[in-house]
Amino acid sequence: MKNLTLKALFISAIAAMSMNAQAADDVYSQCITDAENVIATAAKEGATAARALEQKTEVAACMAELTKIEAKYGDKTVGVNPSSVMTPEDRAAWSKLFDAIDAKKYKGVRYLQATYYR
Predict the structure, then answer these.
(1) Tens of pLDDT along 72-90?
(2) Is 59 exposed, middle or buried (0-12, 13-18, 19+ CB in 10 A)?
(3) What letter does residue 85 receive in the DSSP assignment?
């Protein structure tokens, strides 16, 4: 019985940790999804329809996620581009989120190309 209780406790701890990890990635993935929806709508229906699209997250929340990625590197980023000291995985996530923020603000290369070349 004691062995079963320890297994149940261990499994519930793993489940709780995975839920926390999903919640942390939730804002990041919602920012990316919002940007993709804005770009797809702009390409299909134009800039007016893209601006009318309701977004799940605000730009401030996406900027907070960007700051979290940069915060991992602390003082190493002072005076330099943060991506220059990041690992390749963090650099890719940081770059993708940066582009998503631009698209959510109706700026950036991908959004502008989607509206111009539609």
Answers:
(1) 998 888 888 888 999 999 9
(2) middle
(3) S
Cβ neighbours for 79, distance < 8 A, ≥ 6 positions apart: none
For 11-60, the pLDDT digits (tens) are 555 555 554 444 545 999 999 999 999 999 999 999 999 999 999 999 99
- Domain total of the chain: 1
Phi-psi region of 77 (alpha: psi -120 to 50; beta: other; left: phi over 0): alpha
Torsions phi, psi of 55, nearest 5?
A: -105, 145
Expressed as residue numbers, the domain containing 92 is 23-116
d(CA 80, CA 94) in angstroms, rounded, equals: 15
**Owner of token pair 């990635």:** 25
Contact 38, 110 (CB under 8 A): no
Q: Is residue 11 part of a domain?
A: no
- Does 8 fall in a domain? no
In a domain, 92, yes or no: yes
